[in-house]
Specification:
This protein has 320 residues and is of the alpha+beta class. The chain is 27% helix and 27% strand.
Length: 320
């Protein structure tokens, strides 16, 4: 496996970290951003990569947002890396410490990944750790950030049993969080011939690379809200039908502006007409209709009058 994502370092990792000298270095991208780089004492003596500024300069060439200032990179010997990350891993990322631990050796591994490629992969995890995912999904470090995860149908993949967000055990290569990090590294190294070992459907194309850029440079900030208004026909004369764009996965909420006596019912259907959710039996405790979008780019909203005559409707709509 390429790496592992962990929460907090264990006792052995803490002892190794205590042996490392750490300072902050400019990433050289024209901003004031810096990262912390530490090199263990043993790595100073035996590693190929021991120059902290070389590491910082490389991070400056990777697309990033404000999360870059939170980063620490620690250089280990191969032996230390086994205790820090687990034997067999090329690196690891500690979400609780915003910390990449990586072996200080340059040579490419068996699939062609160099030190810089693996470091870019780990930075992908750092980006995802500082991105939000909408309800009801898990964390972006497990699912991949919102735009990329929506484009790659991570929700549908999880529901169908093809993808396993956050499972770095027997389903490491079906973990979308890992596939995102690998795609992030490929964005930085489009010409490097590194074997794609993850689920083939997640192999990045131009659209995936663009989603990664957007997720990194313009992070998803939460659901947007707008008002939909119009008139609904009288009961028995049909329904007002609206097409609702849903380009991103997550919960869509429809809330009548009047909670009582609004005089109409709501139904959400797929583009093919299949009923997905309706308010026939009430709008729930929050007086709103909620539906989790999972791969649908557009929904059909039907508003039907419950009165003999028609009238106006007004809905507050929130979507990812």
């Amino acid at each position: 496996m390429r790496d592992v994502v962990l929460g907090e370092p264990g006792a052995a990792a803490a002892r190794i970290s205590a042996s490392a000298s750490s300072q902050r270095y400019s990433i050289g991208d024209g901003s004031q951003a810096t990262i912390a780089v530490s090199v263990t004492t043993a790595c100073v003596e035996s590693c190929e990569v021991t120059d902290p500024q070389r590491v910082a300069d490389f991070i400056g060439t990777v697309i990033h947002g404000d999360e870059v200032d939170l980063l620490t990179v620690q250089l280990d010997t191969e032996f230390q890396l086994g205790f820090d990350c687990g034997f067999g891993a090329e690196a690891c990322y500690f979400t609780g410490e915003n910390k990449i631990v990586i072996g200080g050796y340059e040579e490419a591994d068996s699939d062609g990944a160099t030190f810089d490629f693996v470091l870019a992969h780990e930075y992908g995890h750092h980006v995802a750790t500082h991105r939000e995912m909408p309800v009801p999904f898990g964390s972006a470090v497990d699912w991949g950030p919102e735009r990329w995860a929506s484009l790659e149908n991570v929700c549908q993949g999880k529901r169908s049993g093809r993808l396993y967000p956050g499972d770095e055990g027997s389903h490491y290569f079906e973990d979308p969080g890992e596939a995102f990090a690998e795609a992030f590294a490929r964005l930085r190294f489009p010409e490097q011939s590194v074997q794609w070992r993850y689920l083939p459907s997640l192999k990045p194309d131009a659209a995936a690379f663009e989603a990664i850029r957007e997720d990194t440079l313009s992070p998803w900030q939460g659901r947007t809200s707008f008002v939909l208004a119009g008139r609904v026909p009288a009961r028995g004369e049909g329904a007002a039908v609206e097409s609702l764009r849903t380009p991103l996965d997550g919960t869509v909420s429809l809330r009548p502006s009047r909670l009582r006596g609004h005089g109409y019912e709501l139904a959400l259907r797929s583009r093919a007409g299949r009923l997905l959710r309706s308010s026939d039996h009430g709008l729930g405790s929050l007086h709103q209709l909620d539906y989790t979008v999972c791969g649908q780019s557009r929904l059909r909203l039907e508003i039907t009058s419950t009165r003999a005559h028609g009238g106006p409707f007004r809905l507050q709509i929130q979507r990812p």
